[in-house]
Amino acid sequence: MKKQRVRIRFSKTEAMRFTGHLDLILTWERTFRRASLPLSYSEGFNPRPIMNLAVPLPLGFISSAEIGDFWLSDEFTPDQIRNSLDKSLPPGLIVHDVQEIPQLHGGKLPSLVERSDYMITLPNDYPGLQEKIDLLLQSSQCIRTRKRKEYDLRPLIHDIMLVPSDDGSPPSLRVSLLILPTGTGRPDEVLSALDIPPHETIICRTAIILKAGEEK
Amino acid sequence: MEFTQLNQKLAKVLPTVEMPGRYTGGELNQISKDWQKVDVRTALLFPEIYDLGMSNLGLMILYDIINQEPNYLAERSFIPWVDMEAALRSENIPLYSLESKHPLSDFDILAVSLPYESLYTNFLNALDLAQIPIYAKDRAEDHPLVIAGGHSTFNPEPIAPFIDAAVIGEGEEIILEILETYARSQPGSSKLDKLNQLKEIEGLYIPAFYEPVYNADGTFSKLEKTVAEAPDQILKRIVGKLPPPPKKPIVPYIDTVHNRAPLEIMRGCTRGCRFCHAGIVTRPVRERPVEEILETMDTLIPNTGYSEIGLLSLSSSDYTQIVGLVEAINKRFAGQNIAISLPSLRIESVSVSLMDALSGKRRSGFTLAPEAATERLRNIINKPISDQQLLDTAKEIYRHGWHTIKLYFMIGHPTETLADVEAIADLSKRVLQVGIQTIGNRAKVNASVGTFVPKPHTPFQWVGVMPQDEITEKLDLLQRELRGRGLKLNWNDPRETHFESWLSRGDRKLAEVIYKAWQSGAKFDAWREHFDFPLWQEAFAEAGLDPEFYSTRVRAEDEVFPWDHINPGVKKSFLLEDYQWSQEGKTRADCRVNCFSCGILPAYNDLRRQNPGTLWLCPEVSRGK
Questions:
Q1: Which DSSP string corresponds to B305-369?
Q2: Model pTM?
Q3: ipTM of this predicted structure
């Protein structure tokens, strides 16, 4: 029985960096049970908890800006939920905000996402990186192969910015990527297109931007 | 190696391997203690990958017990998968513990869990990855003491040269005695001094204090003591009462084979199947009271958030209060979307009502283990169930909404004929027929056919394993006969069966074979894609040993076994009598009904007296007996 829908903004930090999307869902289910907050479950022989995470975070990335919708079978104030969760979170999850969504049905998060922003920490300087970025942004297409399928990365790129550091450490990259029906931009793909081995960097999602008017 | 250095190297390596979550630690309920503030540091090594090792209850129990003591610390370690192993080797990262990332060689004690023999090469590989010499004699004074435990140590001889000691039996009490003894030993005392003190602990076997002697024909003659005060017999250690179960187990961040909270409800089994190693090793039966189970569940769920609790035992339906327990669980946890699993149910209709009462979830199939397909053969192995009982139970299962029944059989039982094997196909078809009559064409039967491996300390320890060509012939027959719509057959590679049989009843000479096999690349022998039979054959040849001597050879009734100094509390004369009974087709009833004097009570009469009442299923011991 769905009684209440809440939208939770949270971070997934280093301790859970290598926990994948499905295991993250399981971790949330367990967190709610530890917090004695009853999630709504689907009907049938294999009841599943009802929740939507906006857009999967690939294995190995961290995030300061995840969004998830959760349906509860009882009603609580956002403060109650926040407090109960805070006592039950595992290492690697931090809740920033709990917001009640009045609309119980429809408006599913995955259909609302428009863009993700990432901050990528580079291990060292890459000579000629700015030129490569400019070239990529000026090009009309960037054909890449992923899972043995060719696709065009370029239309998925919203912006790439090289951010110098103040303290002499290597610069970071700020990458903004679109989520389109045809595909989702992946920051590791952008890195590869720029000849930077992705696994040498730390990729953090810093924002998920929902379609205008949906972000309340 | 400095931590920061190890961590930096790890940070580089982890993003490049498959499922890096196996190697990070830091999960919910992990216990991290201050390395400097404890007296004894123990690494608990399970020589399989994390996904399997984290589902091992024994490991979790020891982790819990040791870490409850303020002066001791226990951390976990597992074997890396091949990609991570390659990365560790190329970056020169020693195998480390998940909690503090200390190399295993920094620990005082390396406690390795060996529940089954196919982990032996992984164990050697773990030592090597930890940069610890494989043979105990080659290890320096500052290397950790390597202590093995788990069911396979009931025949410790094949791994004797690699370990400093083996725990025989249940680890719960003995582990603290070991740690106390270690803590009491003088700083800087030699390994030999420590072992000399450890030999006083009942249930601990120290192989270096014994030397095996063989007959001219290669059979085992006796174990000669090299230290006069070492015990002649190592009696298995047991707990009189099941200690409180772990209430706050670690919750993995990644999927594991049994992703649920384990809760042991009963140890041991009274049924006496003659092939069963666990049945002897875990005697006597000790039950956990219903109230303790319910109270534990009350804390396990809020501590872990698990949606599934596995109530573990060798035979769930034999737990005395099983119906009451299930009713109480249903009442207490109704509406919380908690699933309860009850493994190992007997072939009787009450099993079906139990599963029915418990499962909000319908699983892929309902498993029944008749083990043999004819009543004659089931009497031989002492699993006396009639065909009718099986078919009636099957009907109930289909009627209650399961579509698939999994049937477990073994071939290669003593006295088995081709007719007994054909009967596996017939019986499977009859079960399917019952299913079709009950629920129509949705009904399915999956038959799994393993091959019997004679195990030490069982009534069948004298028999030979079936020769490979005979296994192949029988499996061919099944592949021809057991087919058709709704039927599925799984079977084991005969070579895997033989591999297991060598190690199960091996002597100390086999250590060389294991070592050579590992040296030429054997590891993950339990994984079909890694198991390399020719490599083991070569290792036998190099060591000048004949594998058939260990596998197919029928042992004489008066043969001295390399594991006879290990005493499971069950007398060898009882096992022999049971073996002889089997040849006459005589069965033994459930020993709760009638005590057959297997030897457990005289071996543990003090313990039984200290734990009176119904928690033990053995008869009570009167004063002075």
A1: --SEEEEE-S-GGGSTTHHHHHHHHHHHHTTS--EEE--S--SSHHHHHHHHHH-SS--S-EEEE
A2: 0.95
A3: 0.92
